[in-house]
Predict the structure.
Amino acid sequence: MNYTLLYFASLRDAAGCAQEGVASEARDPRALYAEAAARHAFKMPLERVRVAVNGAFADVDRPLRDDDEIAFLPPVSGG
Amino acid sequence: MKTFSLSEAAIDPVALLRKLENRGIGAVVTFEGRVRDRNEGRAVRGLAYEAYAELAEVEGARILDEARSRFDTTQALCVHRVGDLVLGELAVWVGVSAAHRDAAFAACRYVIDEVKARVPIWKREHYVQGEAEWLHPGT
């Protein structure tokens, strides 16, 4: 399936891009993150990352559909 | 009116305060978060905020809704900066109006604490020594 992945803050720096389109066999954000972490040598474990799907917070095991947009959010530091 | 917003321009607290005016209120509490010159022992020369804007605006508005339903407030607003900020600059502003002070203080505290914990915004500190780092609390 085809997905759009969004990266923020240190994950964006590690990925070298804010966004990328991927074709993947992964069916949930957990598997997609494992692939992205291997591709970009992410050091941040998934346990520290929040996931959003199509602009809303989502569980890492939520089933994905073709064309979903998945955002990987490292721990926030606003304020 | 949007209760939570991200701003690329400097925050104007006087203009924001005007939005809270209402004859029924007896108390206004505001919080201003500012850029500090040190963090964890390192001298800071400035910082940048990045947001996942689409989700930040939804989550921010949800927090302000929660504040209004938990406390007896009239209005609650929050603006958070994005982009590059210099020392002393206003990074976040929260303003709450209510009939009485207890609700205004409690709601203001609730909003800033929840915004810091939940809204997808990230801070990158630039240090006097030259390097820069994203802050991701909770190692």
